[in-house]
Specification:
Helix content is 2%, strand content 50%. By secondary structure, it is mainly β. It has one domain.
Length: 262
């Protein structure tokens, strides 16, 4: 599932724990079901653009790839005109993201796009420490089904994270710098998705404090002694009692969210 979240913040926009509506992100038509939002994440680098050897993933075994890149945070904000050849976005190109110059001279960019259930852009606005030493971790999903990215300082402070499903699990807990991401209790009635039933589940984020969010809600918790803001994009689980257990995997959950600092 896609979720449209144009994340990233330009320094001149300032910090604000609110969502900017009505950007020109085009999301796919909603599925019948629980979906309350859409997001996409993608990855590129100038090594790809210039035809050099593609940067190596940290996990080159069979299956989805992951990357970890350390370097200087060059900019965040508009990413128009860039190519996301390492891991293209699902369905459309994002207009926002951040760029990192690694120690070998390769520039990387991570792009995001998000929208709510009405296909209106929703953009959390924060502030990233341009010029700082940072590390980002990136995990692609299964096939073209989403991805996840986490940005933190080299000292270990989480700056922001976005996940279009449950792909952060591929990166391990250490990259989240103390942030715990779990599914909470179910809420609302069952919704039909083909022959499978789904229902909403709370997104539970924990640091020094804990918040639980329904899909579409925002909240703030404490992590590393400072506020961390979060938006739950789409959170659901299949019914364990679905008759078609092969098509309706009871272990499958969606925990799409974005977290950012001001």
């Amino acid at each position: 599932m896609l979720i449209a979240l144009v994340l990233c913040c330009t320094g001149d926009e300032g910090g604000s724990n609110k969502l900017t509506r009505g950007t020109d992100v085009q999301a796919p038509e909603p599925e019948i079901g629980v979906g309350v939002g859409y997001a996409t994440v993608c990855l590129g680098s100038d090594a790809i653009v210039e035809g050099a050897e593609p940067p190596k993933a940290t996990d080159t075994s069979a299956g989805p790839r992951t990357w970890q890149v350390a370097g200087e945070l060059l900019a965040d904000g508009l990413l128009e005109g860039l190519t996301f050849d390492l891991d293209p976005c699902s369905g459309w190109e994002p207009h926002r993201g951040y760029r990192v110059l690694d120690d070998t001279g390769v520039t990387w960019w991570v792009g995001y796009a998000t929208a709510d259930a009405d296909q209106q852009g929703s953009t959390p606005i924060g502030a990233l420490p341009i010029g700082s030493r940072v590390v980002f971790d990136y995990a692609e999903g299964e096939g073209s089904d989403g991805a996840a990215a986490v940005l933190r300082t080299t000292e270990g402070q989480l700056l922001h994270a976005v996940d279009t499903g449950k792909w952060l699990e591929r990166l391990g807990h250490d990259v989240l710098a103390g942030l715990s991401v779990e599914a909470g209790d179910a809420y609302g009635g069952w919704n039909l998705r083909e022959e499978c039933r789904r229902r909403g589940v709370l997104l539970r984020l924990a640091g020094e404090s804990v918040i639980e969010l329904e899909g579409g809600d925002t909240g703030t918790l404490e992590l590393g002694g400072e506020p961390l803001h979060a938006l739950a994009i789409d959170t659901w689980a299949y019914d364990e009692d679905n008759d078609n257990t092969e098509a309706c995997d009871a272990t499958r959950e969606e925990r799409s969210f974005i977290a950012w600092r001001e």
